[in-house]
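Standup notes, structure subgroup. Blocker cleared on the fe (iii) ion input:
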Amino acid sequence: MAEQQGIFGAVWDRLWINGRLATMTEAGPYGTIDPGALAISGGDLAWVGSMADLPDRPENLAHDLFDLEGRWVTPGLIDCHTHLVYGGNRAREFELRLEGASYEEIARAGGGIRSTVAATRQADEQTLYAVAAGRLEALLEEGVTTIEIKSGYGLDLANELKQLRVARRLGESHPVTVKTSFLGAHALPPEFDGDADGYINAVAAMMPEVAASGLADAVDAFCEGIGFSADQTGRVFEAARSQGLPVKLHADQLSDLGGAALAARFGALSADHLEYTNDQGIAAMAKAGTVAVLLPGAFYFLRETKLPPIESFRSAGVSMAIATDCNPGSAPVTSLLLMLNMASTLFRLTPEEALAGVTRNGARALGIADTHGTLEAGKAADFCIWDIDSPADLAYRIGFNPLVQVYRAGRAR
Ligand code: NIG
Ligand code: FE
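Run returned:
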C-alpha cells in the first residue's frame, strides 16, 4: 500500500484514504462508507468518514498517509467464546463417536471434559502456554484482535487459576485483547463424584479468591444434564454477583433446562449455544439485553440436528454473536472465518449478520461495545484490511484467508 510522509500541522498519526469501510455500525448494510477514510491517533480511531468529508490535501492531516486503493476495511474480529487453554487432545473420542458413541455417553462414561481436566491438571503452565499460543496464532492469522478465554478444565482453585494466568499471559505476549471467564462450574471433578451440590459449594467458595486475583473478567457455567442444574447454576451466579463479576452461560445446548431465562434473570452478558432455547428464554434475553452467542462449529462437530431458534432471536431483537468455541471436545476449531461460513450455511444467518456476530455483537457479548466492535471515532484502532470484492466474501469463501493487514490498538501486526 502506498505510503506518503505528511508535512506540517499534522493532526493524526496515520490516515488511510480511498478505502471501502464496513464500519459495522447499524447505519445501513455493513455500516458501509465507500469511498471512506480512517485515521488513528495513539491506540484509538481518531476519525472515520467519507472521502467527501475529508479536507483537501490529506497529506497535511497526518504524519503517515496510506492509500487503501479500494480495499475493504472491517473492525478487528472478536472471538467471544473459547476454551483456548487446555492440555491433551480428544482425537480418540472423535474416533469413538464415529464408531457410534454419543458426546453425552462419552461424558457419562468419564471421558469428555473429564479427560481434558486430567490432561490440563497434569500440564505445567509453560506447556499449557505453548500449546494455547499455537491455537491463538492460528486465530490471529485471520484477523482476530479480541478473544475471550475460559478456564474450566482445572476444576480446583489452583488449576483454574493456572489456566487463567496462562490466558492473561497470552494477552501480554501477543497483540490481542484477552477477556477471561472463570468456568469452575464446567463439569464435576472426579473427587466430587456423586456430590454436585458439594462441588457447587466449592466453586462458590473459590469466587472471592478468583475475584481478588483479578484473573477473571466474568463467570461462566455449564447448565445441562451432563453439567449443572438451573438451581446449581443460580448459586454460582449469586456468588459471582456478590463479587461484582458479570456472568454468561453455556445454556440449552443439548436440552432445555431454562438456561437462557436463568442467564437473563442475572443480567448475563451472553447466553451461549441455545439450540434448545424456548420462547420464554428468548423474550427474557431480549428484555435483559443478553446477547445470543451462536456456536456453529460445535453444532457441526457434534452433528446436532436441532437448530437454534434464529428467526425468533431476530424478531425479538436479540443481538447474535458468533464464536469458535475452540475446545478439544465439541469444537476443535481455530478458524473464525470458517464460523462465518457455517453460521450462514448451517444457521442461515446472512453474511452481514455473521460479520456483525464477530464484530459489533461479539463486543456486546464481552461488555466492551463502548470501545470495540465497530469502526467509529473514539473506539480502539482495531481493524482489518482485506483483499475482497465485498464483505460477504468473508462468509462465502471456505478455507481462504484474504487478510492483507491487521492493526490492533493502532499498531500493525
Ligand atoms: O462449549 N458445553 C460445554 N463445554 C464445551 C465443550 C467442552 C468439552 O467437550 O471439552 C462447549 O461445547
Ligand atoms: Fe463452550
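Discussed briefly. The CA atoms of residues 223 and 233 lie 6 Å apart.
Next: hand off to the docking folks.
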